[in-house]
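look at this stuff:

>
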Amino acid sequence: MLKFTVMLLAVLLWSAGAQAQVAPAYRATLIVDFWGGMHINDLGQIAVTRYGVPYIWSRDKGLVPVASSAVDVQVWGFNNAGTAVGAAMWQPQNEEMTYYQPVVWVQGGPFTRLNTLGRGGAAAAINNRGTIVGGVQGSFEDNWSRRGFMQRDGQVTVFEDFIPQAINDADVMVGVGLENDGADIAGIKVWRDGQLSPLDGVPGERPMFINQRGWIAGTTDDYLPWLWRDGALTQLWNGSITDMNDAGVVIGEYHIGRTVLWFEDQVYELGDLWDKAGWEGWSLAHVSTINEKGEMGALLWDDGFGQRMVLLSPVLEPAGAAQLLAGLALLGALRLRKARR
């Protein structure tokens, strides 16, 4: 039995290894006939916003609107528990004007204001432990300034010199440093175990991403996507990054309507990997979010300016499937031979 198990693992790893160097193909599933913001979790659920109205999409329930009294909701993070965070227009106490404020949504309830730290702000990300990070601005000790925050287990930590933009499940955060009482940006910083350290040699302050391996990805102000892994910086392509998953697959675009995927140190155009059967006349215009399984939320458009949001799911290439089936058939034959003996 042990020998058979070892052989089975060898065949599966052989087949997987053959696939590891080639980006998978993708198949599209329709979500809805409009375009909006998208954030996918590892269960394949997608938080969608259109014109400030939030929805949750899943394969079994389809697109379901989220009841909320908040105005102009924007979702920036969505975890595997189905909790979404972001920003919405909110009116602070004793003020006539409204401002974008950090908000959170837990399944079964409405979007609610996350904290009252500043006059305006947003929750930028949430991890699978429920830790929420973001930034606020407003009056602090009689001075107008910017601050970062982390909210974990009901406790709020305020950062005077750091605004986190992304967080992984180890509560490691990446964001921008602050100086001059929050008035100026002081480069990219990483927060780990209570210590803040610079990420040297990486310019810019655009949205960044961090995965469970500690890899960090972002885009410079000159639209040069980069990846920081194991202490080294890699330039990926010219354009912008929209997301990165735990396997280190990075997605984005290099031109309007030209989407790309960085996989195993190679850049692929997603339009060449997408199986267009049943989608004649449609083009892949934008890809915005990716989960641990490699599923992506994307936008399709046609020549008549039609828009459709879809889920792109990776599928096994025929060659890889044939290798896997051949390996399993070989193992079956060996077991049959042993049984006859």
Q: What stands out?
A: Residues 2-20, 320-341 have pLDDT under 50 and may be disordered.
